[in-house]
Amino acid sequence: MRNFKEYISIQLLTLISLFASAQQTPGPRLIVRGDDMGSSRSANLASIETFVNGIETSIELMVVTPWFPEAAQMLKKNTGIDVGLHLVITSEWEGIKWRPLTNCPSLTDADGYFLPMMGSNKNYPGLAITENQWKLEEVEKEFRAQIDFALKHVSQISHLSGHMGSTGFHPDVTKMVSKLSKEYDLPVMSRELNQELGLSGVSYDGPKATSAEKEASFISMLEKLEAGKSYMFVDHPSYDNIEMQGVGHIGYEDVAIDRQGVTDTWTSENVKEAVSRNGIELINFITLTKALPRSDPEKEKINPQSISEYLQAVKSENQDLHSLMILRNGKVVYEQWFGENAANKTHVMYSVSKTFTSTAIGFALQEGLLNLTDKVISFFPDKLPKEIGPNLQELEIRHLLTMTVGHDVDPTGVLREKSKDLDWVEGFLAFPMEHQPGEQFVYNSLATYMLSAIITNVTGQRILDYLQPRLFRPLGIVGATWDVSPQGIQFGGWGLKVKTEDMAKLGLFYLQKGQWNDKQLLPDSWFDEATIAQVQSLPAGVKKENLKVNAQDSDWLQGYGYQLWRSRHNSYRADGLNGQFILILPEKNAVIVTTAKIPNMQEELNLIWEHLLPAFED
Description:
Layout: H1 4-13, H2 18-22, E1 29-37, H3 41-52, E2 58-61, H4 68-77, E3 83-87, H5 136-153, E4 157-162, H6 171-184, H7 191-197, E5 199-202, H8 211-222, E6 230-235, H9 255-266, H10 269-277, E7 281-283, H11 285-289, H12 304-316, E8 321-328, E9 331-337, E10 347-348, H13 353-366, H14 390-394, H15 397-402, H16 412-416, H17 424-430, H18 445-459, H19 463-475, E11 481-482, E12 496-498, H20 500-511, E13 515-516, E14 519-520, H21 524-530, E15 565-567, E16 571-576, E17 580-585, E18 590-596, H22 601-612
Helix pairs in contact: 5-6, 8-9, 8-10, 12-22, 13-18
């Protein structure tokens, strides 16, 4: 795969403008949806395998089924998976059954199990939902219970779907599910929404009795997908083993063989090669339902020539840019990925992670779980050093946010190099604190780790799980992962991976001061405080007496807010090592996002100021 510099050179040699090449029609987009996780142990294992080692992009989870507890545990360990709740009111297998979470006799048989079929089936006369006097209020009560139960145990639930057509078998049910979708802010996969999104269903293009036939027919289907269109393929990965050989119903007895073929196909190297060869972008449902709106640069008063000049300057300076996304007026006007990077791939954030962590503190503050003046030692009474100095006693959450802890140097590297048995919280609290908190700025990644630890302390959740319903689900951020310490606390200050558009969503969330889809998710007062210069800043690892630049030339001397840097041109940013930027320009109503491997980040910003800032016309 070509790297960024080779990409630009080829564009120049072929006389195609950089800007035009970036805006060309995308290839086909495909959702690969695996249904029925939770129904069996085999389905659980295969669902994870086809995501981790295959092409599956979305997993549909059933919560009333016997193997749901294990499924929930697996998904907690695989937070990068997009999960839909598969709403269930039927129990079709003869060898294994499941019951509702609520009392809903119009949906169950004499033994209390869900009826086996949704529609009339000659093999099960009188045992279909539609053949009985089902009650809408019981369906709604059961669906609500399943949604609440799923959200309690699986934080990354992002949408709803129906098992065996449960969400759309009657117009009244469709209307009720639409109401629940809006209430819980969970888009529901439906025929109507698919049409609105331009999402077409596809299936095997040929015979599918064996694994070999499935693979060939799946590849044949891939080769017929059209550029610029979106598709969804649905099937049920599992294994041909003793468990699944005991599962089935009249008319579908070869379940084990059939579903082993799905697993084999979705993990096939031939299939992966066909996806790549045909330029297919694998996406999840939320990529379509909660994508940022798109527009053209000219419509939003941005000069496209300036973007081309910026990319040419990046090439000339040998900067390794991985992606670029530009927003204005709430719309994406330019987006491009280079080399091995892609829209559907997450990228390491490094210290951009810190801004996500400070946002979690904002939510906890809003919910009354903490105050910025709370003493840090109050959260960790069992981890305090034997002697608590006066500076440690005075350390508050706000000092962690502004990196004015009182350390003379950042303790992060020192403590991480010590034994794996070292508790990072204990190490932080025991580290020498030479200065009074709030007195001076020292860039301190472990201070952000402490913020993550505080979130876990007051909520009982890891920070990623805490952010899911409050930030990630409303904004449509799925597939995020966050590394954890030996103590199981997510790093907070680094270790997060999200996609470029997810970064842009956070930037827009800050630009809009917490408003999203006409809802105020966080009070604007938080953003007024978080984005101003709370303290005079210094570049990481640099002391004031060693400064060799002045504020006029440095974006690291403009001040520091709550895990955000102030920048020149009255802007502010989240930034991470090697050129990860979420640059917010309030005066231009714009956000610029980059991922990169550019060690000299000031030079990267200099090119942005030189070429992209003038692109925003008044």
